[in-house]
Amino acid sequence: MRVLILGGDGYLGWPTAMHFAARGHEAFVVDNYLRRWIARATSSEPLMDNPNLEERVAIFGSLSNHRIGCAIGDCADYRFLERVVREFRPEAIVHYAEQPSAPYSMRGYEEARLTLNNNLNVTFNAIWAVLEHAPECHIIKLGTMGEYGTPDIDIEEGWIEIEHKGRKDTFLFPRQAGSLYHTTKVLDTDLLWFYVRTFGLRVTDLMQGPVYGLSSDECDIDERLLPNFHYDDIFGTVVNRFLVQAVAGVPLTVYGKGGQTRGYLNLRDTLQCIELAATKPPERGELRILNQFTERFSVNELAERVQRVGEQLGLDVEIRSIDNPRKEREEHYYNPVHHGLRELGLKPHLMTDEVLAGMLRHVLRCRGSIDTKKILPRVRWA
Amino acid sequence: MRVLILGGDGYLGWPTAMHFAARGHEAFVVDNYLRRWIARATSSEPLMDNPNLEERVAIFGSLSNHRIGCAIGDCADYRFLERVVREFRPEAIVHYAEQPSAPYSMRGYEEARLTLNNNLNVTFNAIWAVLEHAPECHIIKLGTMGEYGTPDIDIEEGWIEIEHKGRKDTFLFPRQAGSLYHTTKVLDTDLLWFYVRTFGLRVTDLMQGPVYGLSSDECDIDERLLPNFHYDDIFGTVVNRFLVQAVAGVPLTVYGKGGQTRGYLNLRDTLQCIELAATKPPERGELRILNQFTERFSVNELAERVQRVGEQLGLDVEIRSIDNPRKEREEHYYNPVHHGLRELGLKPHLMTDEVLAGMLRHVLRCRGSIDTKKILPRVRWA
Which of A32, A71, A153, B278 makes an SS bond possible with B164, Cβ 3.0 to 4.6 Å? Predict the structure, then answer.
């Protein structure tokens, strides 16, 4: 299968490319280094340096004998994306090419406008490149569980039947997100659904929870093949921040009450999910939505887990609540369904103490590079 | 009250500006002539020429003694819009500045991308200009009833309480539109709702049905103050097309079965609705959604009305069904609520035979300018 990965330099993009290539598929990555540029502009560089994408491709090729195609360019530029699609003729496009930071999208006008235009135009261009040059191609879009927000009803898998005044119909599950970044993914879903039902596209929209982990069969081959690891307030997710804080000997910073509950998953499970989606595509004219996570934790539970495992490794780990820089519910109902990927065959890798200890050991090896100034919130929208 | 009208050169924008100015408000119009440019590019010029916006302002000023401020520029350019907002300090912004044609948005990649980027970026810039320079200002956004599509349940006024598995919560009423243009208005609503609940904007989103009519207290002063009148397949709405077909002696073209039902309103009622929304603003942090139409007709009913009134005026009017160029339901349930504007004080002007006869007489005076090549569908998406 020919798989085109948009945003192939990213935390998920690069492991996804290696994963497909190692399983005998033809993989092709594109990226314009937008995340690297934003990381530099906001002093949010990752803990370890990552080679440029073309170097990663060369290193992986020399170590594994699997060739990955690569082009550096902007997917929001249609002439670029169109040429790649016409020449590579993908059977699946995995679309990760979005500005992925909620705090960055809330920093000011310029950052918000960049997020809105980049994210929507890449989705729009992916749709059109498929319509014009590869109508059978399956678009696998990375959405986010954050699209749903934290409603007071159970969250279904993308769709809901509404009974109202004695009649009923089925609709997209209602969405209301907590940042502009998350809102752009709501708009992406609206846009995809319009083109799916109008022109018979074939789309899977994955509502993914926060991902943690640095390990996959291919990432483990060589340090230079690791995904990027951000622990800053802009790109770092809560698990990474806690791990780095534990190692640096500064308190784990819980935003507000810490009752914010989300569904998490291991990087290895993201790779499984993308592969399952690609090898079992939906019909044309179907927007398949899957809730992509394996287990739920509150922020307080995560902090306590990291504390416990950190102390087992001899670290002195304190937990401290700080003012929440985000506008979000700190205590809320949260009961999202997530059957679809299990039914496709997902075998979860859970967040065991061993998994956390493995990540902590990794961070410990790099402790000299930690810059604690990057960790505390620098963007507020509460 | 200081009222800034974005898209002040449009079918609604220009009458709105005169309406506010004539009632003692300070009105300021901005426009970049995007619609005029698209009309020329697609051979969809209106039936009568309209003077440029600055000339209209001058003519209205000399005939009525009411001054309207005016700037020609692109609201998708933040530097332009920001300067206007900073200097004029509006208390209300009426946002009409969108590419308004469904067929144009479905014509191809370039047209779709222009529609997506223009419409979203103007909405985004209006939000930010208010956040940064006029936080108390009320944004009155022109949405469309088309955002809801034609669901099998009753359409509520913007919001719906969903009861699900024994729990309940209130959400935006589900939206799924029939063209990319209508979809951009769905995205606008998502974007406005995000910024309203996050930063306490004050917004009214008007879900308007198709508008007809050329007459208002101010439009009637002088021929040169009339709004534009499009009868082509790109910008012409169904009522205008039927009136021109009746006068030109060609069959009224019903798309498909003609059971497509929508809520319509008279231009005079749009002006009332906008004024009611402006003078009775919502609280900060409220997204008020109002369904803006006064009566419902199917396409077949409209055709029969135009036929009857045309024949009273001695015209020979035939009705003919043609292949539907659009992807839409031609027979469907349709029961939208529309109490809100009545409660604010709206006194409807209905589509009487006299109103249709008045419009037909107007078109008869311009019959020499009719170009029947413009009327039949030139864009298909079914």
Answer: A153
Q: Residues A123, A144, A150, A270: which is the catalytic one? A: A144
Q: How confident is the model at residue B382 (pLDDT cuts 50, 70, 90)?
A: confident
With contact defined as beta carbons under 8 Å apart, do A144 and A211 qualify? no
Summarised one tens digit per residue, pLDDT across range A106-157 is: 999 999 999 999 999 999 999 999 999 999 999 999 999 999 999 999 999 9
- To test the contact with chain A by mutation, choose from B194, B195, B333, B381 the residue with the greatest count of A C-beta atoms within 10 A, namely B194
A313 contact partners, CB below 8 Å, separation of at least 6: A357, A360, A361, A364
Of B162, B190, B199, the CB nearest to A186: B190
CA dist., res. B271 & res. B16, Å (int): 6
Question: How big is the A-B interface in CB pairs under 8 Å?
Answer: 111
**ipTM of the complex as predicted:** 0.97
Is-contact B264 B220, C-beta < 8 A?
no
CA-closest candidate to residue B291, choices B377, B351, B381, B208: B208
Round to whole Å and give the CA distance between A341 and A207: 11
* Six-digit token string for A11: 């935390």
* pTM for this prediction: 0.98
Q: Which two tokens stand for residue A49?
A: 């340096």
CB-based contact A174 B174, cutoff 8 Å: yes
Which pLDDT tens digit goes with each residue over A242-287? 999 999 999 999 999 999 999 999 999 999 999 999 999 999 999 9
Which residue stretches of B65-210 are H helix?
A: 78-88, 102-105, 109-133, 180-199
Catalytic site residue B150?
A: no
Q: Give B94→chain A minimum CA distance, Å.
A: 21
